[in-house]
Amino acid sequence: MASHHAARDGAEGAAQQASGPEPRRRPAEPEPQRQPHEDLDPRAELSEFLRTRRDRLKPADVGLTDYSRRRRVPGLRREELAQLAGVSAAYYTRFEQGNARNVSREVVDAVSRVLGLSGDEHTHLLRLAQPERHPERHPGPPRQQVRPEVQELLTAVEGVPAYVWGRRSDVLAWNQTASAVFGDWAARAPQDRNWGRITFLDPASRELFTDWKAKAQDVVGQLRLWAGLRPDDARLASLIGELSMKSGDFRELWAAHDVKKKTHGTMPLTHPLVGPLTLRYETLTLPGDQDQSLTTYHAEPGSPSEQALRLLASWGADANRDRSTDTSH
Question: Is the separation of the CB atoms in 234 and 297 below 8 Å?
């Protein structure tokens, strides 16, 4: 994405790729940040997810009358949630703390109903409450490969920004139009072709995404979903550790425990070459690999954004031809 600045120069001329003694009384220590090698703790993830969901509700939201003047918790108490879900307060406490065994689907559904969870949140809670058992910690599934037919599809729809992304929001394949819109992914190291690193560690992303916070929330929500699915993924733990140490914005959003699956919507951009444009996106899960998704973007027909997108597609094609010519000599 940082290459957008070089692209702007290229459109105008020649392109370039661009401590003291300890006090007597020790202060309360801040919560330690996750180190890159640490696993994601499923029990802690479950506990924090349920706590943050309770915190966002008030008794009146679920039909309860609050007779107390002061509440020690910002949202629902555990015993209030337990009562509405039809379980004992002691059992729900064990459940929220990750100490309940063999939690039934009925209990999870009841808790989800009381908390008003979305479909994505309900799925996430099920994964946390009924995690798959993996006997050994491992670095995660093998690196994903994009089928040649999918690569051909990306080329066939050139003019429409399209890319394939997979586990941990890694960008796996793309066409030239997508590169023209979002930046030269080919110029990035493979491990940096990741929406988490791009969004939180590349300053250019804050200029490109007009509503950067919404984009950041989408990225974190998707990472949360993957964390619920594969808490033993060492590569994910390393990514979360890196982002937590390098970005305060990421730490804040990660602590909120919000989950969100990217499917469709509208994305406003401020592009360094063509200025403001608004694109609509659609995301489809690819057959043959449920962990790979294809996202395409298009503009409203006849709109200024459509004209801007055509210009970017043309520039992307020209840049690709220039690179091909350079490598052939």
Answer: no
